Amino acid sequence: MISKSQLKVKRIFDVLLALMCLPLLIVPILLLVLIATIDTKKWGVYSQCRVGQYGKLFRIYKIRTLGDGEHQLGQLDNSASSIGKFLRQTKLNELPQLYNVLIGDMSFVGPRPDLQGFADELIGDDRIILEVKPGITGPATLKYRHEERVLERQNNPKHYNRTIIWVDKVKINKNYVQNYSFYLDLTLILKSILNK
C-alpha cells in the first residue's frame, strides 16, 4: 500500500518533471490549440469534470479533437477529424494535463481520471484506488491504449466498458496502489514514451 511519504515524494517528482517539461512543450501545446481551434471551429482546449484523488471532482484539460454533435462511446475516433484522430492516437491531446499535474489535480502516473459514475462509486477495498492522484499514464492506460478500437467492435460498447474493461481496470489500478514504488512510476513513464 502506498504510504504518505511515498505520496509526498511522488508529488515532488511530479512538480519537478512538470516544470522541466512545460518550457519545452508550451509552444507545441499552443500550436496544437490553434490547430484544434481551426479544425473543430471551437476553442481548441476541451475541459471536463472528472473524479480525482479521494473522490474530489476537478476539471481535466485536453486538446479538442471533436467538433459539434453527439459523440457515442465506441465511435469517438470515427467522430474525430483526421487531425483529431492523429491527436488521439498519439495522445498529444493529453498534453494540457501538464497543467493539471502542476496544480496538483493529477500525477504523471496513476489511474486515469474517470467520469462520475465509476471511481466515485467504488466500494470496499477497491476504494484504495482513490488514495492516489489520477495519472496521465498508468498500467491500465497502457493496457487499454487502444480502448476505442476495442469498443468499436462491441454490439453494446457501454455495457462492455462497464462490465469488462472497467472491472479489469479496477484490478490493475488496485494492484498498482498496493504494490507502488517510485521505480514502478519511472518504468511506466518510460513504457508510455516508448509506446508513442
Automatic annotation (TrEMBL):
Q: Which domain of life is it from?
A: Bacteria
Alphabetized UniProt keyword annotations: Membrane, Transferase, Transmembrane, Transmembrane helix
So where does this one cross the membrane?
12-38
Q: Name one matching Pfam family.
A: Bac_transf
Could you tell me which residue ranges the Bacterial sugar transferase domain spans? 10-193
Key word Calcium present in the record? no
Record keyword Transmembrane helix present: yes
Q: Which organism is it from?
A: Winogradskyella thalassocola
Identification of the protein by name: Sugar transferase involved in LPS biosynthesis (Colanic, teichoic acid)
The terms under GO molecular function for this entry are: phosphotransferase activity, for other substituted phosphate groups
The family note in this entry says: Belongs to the bacterial sugar transferase family.
